[in-house]
Design a protein that fits this description.
Blueprint: H1 4-20, H2 25-60, E1 64-71, E2 74-81, H3 105-118, H4 122-139
Antiparallel strand pairs: 1-2
Helix pairs in contact: 1-2, 3-4
């Protein structure tokens, strides 16, 4: 959800009200203060609306984890597989196949940091991430990353 266009719209409406003030400095000062105060208040309201939307989605997707995160300052609903998602491999399957990857050093560092945060080895983290992506592709697209305006 992109909140900045909403903030801009409200601020533009207040600016138009300022034209009615007929250049009264006191009225213009009040409108300026109100305009500045509304930005943060609208961001909080957008976060609350996103939380309500996430609760609705959570109720319909019990097997997934639904979170609200900030992406570039805007609330975004993130949906990931829950703990009851099927495992990447069966217990009897051995890990003996190999793939050599060339990665940008920054991506390698990001993977290593993510694996460390979850307490997994880099290999286990990469196998799990690739398995989730492969299952998603096999089962059909399950990408819920959508933006919406209020």
């Amino acid at each position: 959800m992109h909140i900045q266009p909403i903030i801009n719209s409200v601020q533009d409406a207040l600016a138009r009200l300022g034209e009615v003030a007929n250049a009264d400095p006191a009225a213009e000062a009040v409108l300026d203060q109100l305009t500045q105060a509304l930005g943060p208040a609208l961001r909080v309201a957008a976060m609350e609306i996103a939380e309500q939307a996430a609760a609705e989605v959570r109720a319909q997707l019990a097997e997934h984890i639904v979170d609200v995160v900030l992406a570039e300052g805007d609330p975004t609903i993130r949906i990931t597989d829950g703990p009851n998602a099927p495992s990447t491999r069966s217990l009897a399957e051995e890990l003996d196949a190999r793939i050599t990857l060339r990665l940008a050093p920054s991506l390698k560092q990001l993977i290593e940091d993510s694996a460390q945060q979850t307490g997994e080895s880099v290999n286990a983290w990469v196998v799990e991430a690739l398995g989730k992506r492969a299952r998603t592709n096999r089962a059909g697209t399950k990408n819920y990353n959508q933006t919406f305006d209020l």
